[in-house]
Amino acid sequence: MASTSDNKTKMNKLQICLCIVGFLDFLGVAMLIPHLTKYMSSLGASPGVVGAVMSVYGFLQFFSGPMVGRFSDIFGHHRVLFWCILITGVSYGLMGITNSVTLIVLTRIPLGIFKQTQSLAKSQLADITPAHQRAEMFGRYNAISTAGFIIGPVLGGYIAEDSTRFGRVCFLTFLTFMVNLALVFFFVSSSPKEHVKRTASIEKFTTDDYSINIKGFFSAFKKIAKTQPDLFAIRFLLGLCMMMFRSNFTLLLEQRFETTPKINGWIISYGSLISTLSGMMVGHVVRYYNNLSRLFKHSSIGMTITLILMTLSPSLLYFMMFSTCLSVFNSVSRVCAVDIGIQRGGVSDTGSLLGLTTSVMSISRTVAPLVSGVAMEYSVYCPSIIAIFLGSCGIALQIVYPLNRNLNVDDEQEYTNEKKKDK
Q: How far, in Å, CA of 55 to CA of 59, rounded?
């Protein structure tokens, strides 16, 4: 019995490598992004211009996510992942030698198109992970990759003490992505063909692994979207809820609790640490519930209630205590949403599925900074109130349209059979 339990939780080499890929991706981004707005301000950009530049990334991700995901289904997750990391790393390196906001915008364009490391790595994880282990594996992946946000802000802060050292941070980010590129090239192999069943949607628009039928290319997305419009709507609402709260998080802390930039950095790192630890517990929580849709609904309720308590917090101590709960609920809900989507759509279309999910979330990343900034001009509490409303709408949708409908029969049966075997 003990050996069975060990086999169930042990990660193979490819899974470990993909988790490291996710970690290095977040590490590089976390070192740079917190300093980007300050650097643009030093170049003379107004807050409105800074917000518009930051929204470019999310806007492009909306269109590029499904396309890159679909190409990965056709040409292979490994091959597409390699080129995306290469282009992303070069773009971050070029950002460090720019001296105008216009050039920064130009470097953000390829980032918005090719910065797809997380969804591509998860697609390959889904290919090589049995259905009954996916929730736990995605939890571990999120935990390991999120650790990059613990180290990144602190490391970037020590390097970029002022805006004149922004180029150093960009160069270090470039090196991080090059290390990631070498890891993918030498240690991350292509998914075995036997793990990926060729569905009718793929056969319809591909005559072989390297040809594309344009009409079928878009019809595949239509097929996937039809199977789970409710899940996409719920993920959008909950994603926008969290982005509304976090878009101007440091400004909120400064205005409400008069925190310093140093304290803000430690608070962000603390939140990432809690997300990492909670990600490690997701597999155990899923096994305890044995019902992903119910767990997703309960974690969504917990997120919304926690946001209410954080909005009403009288001191930074209470705020941090409730922030801990928010990080836990958010980690659980993210894993549940991904696994439910895969069970509905089937493992063979994970690239397209997660690409569409990236696009849905990119809408939140596009809208949230602008809306949150405007709302904060009226009151520091306005973004939180809007976030609470959006979270409540997401919960209402889960009650009206239960997410345990329309699950992929084969995937669900595999999950059930594997669970019985483990017992």
A: 6
